[in-house]
From TrEMBL:
Keywords: Heme, Iron, Metal-binding. It comes from the Eukaryota. The keyword Iron applies. This is Indoleamine 2,3-dioxygenase 2. GO terms for cellular component: cytoplasm.
Length: 152
């Protein structure tokens, strides 16, 4: 037998929010999220990925450059298109989740149904996705030198 004492862990479960890519894009564009869940998911990332997000949050100057550019500048227009494209991606993602997770779960009442309601990371699935989408669709606070994209 094992002489070690069993320790119960409470983990969130798999979630796409554990991926570094979208949080990196948010940080580069100066998009901040209020969701504590996104910040918690950073703890599940590889240490090098956590460091990347921290570096992007503190070293990226794109938001300041955009804020300092003329309203009609190509840089500001490109930044606006990038923010809009990310919001569109998130909108389409919600559509896919609704079609392939939420709708089937509504037809089959099993453990899968609770997954559709809570998501793999334990968050209210559609509500969480819509919050992230909506925060990303808002113009980032470009004049804030503390833009960090980390959700803090």
């Amino acid at each position: 037998g094992c002489s070690c004492e069993a320790t119960r862990l409470r983990l969130s479960g798999g979630s796409a929010a554990q991926s570094t890519i979208l949080q990196s894009i948010d940080a580069l564009l100066g998009i901040r999220h209020e969701s504590a869940f996104l910040a918690e998911m950073v703890d599940y990332m590889h240490p090098a990925h956590r460091q990347l997000l921290k570096d992007l949050a503190t070293e990226t100057r794109l938001p300041q450059l955009v804020a300092a550019s003329a309203p009609e500048s190509r840089l500001r227009a490109a930044h606006g298109r990038a923010v809009a494209a990310l919001a569109d991606f998130r909108k389409r993602h919600i559509g896919l989740v609704s079609r392939y997770i939420v709708a089937p779960a509504g037809r089959v009442r099993t453990e899968f149904a609770s997954l559709a309601e809570r998501g793999t990371g334990g968050q209210p699935l559609i509500q969480f996705l819509k919050e992230v989408r909506d925060e990303g669709a808002l113009p980032p606070p470009l004049s804030d030198p503390g833009v960090d994209g980390s959700g803090d």
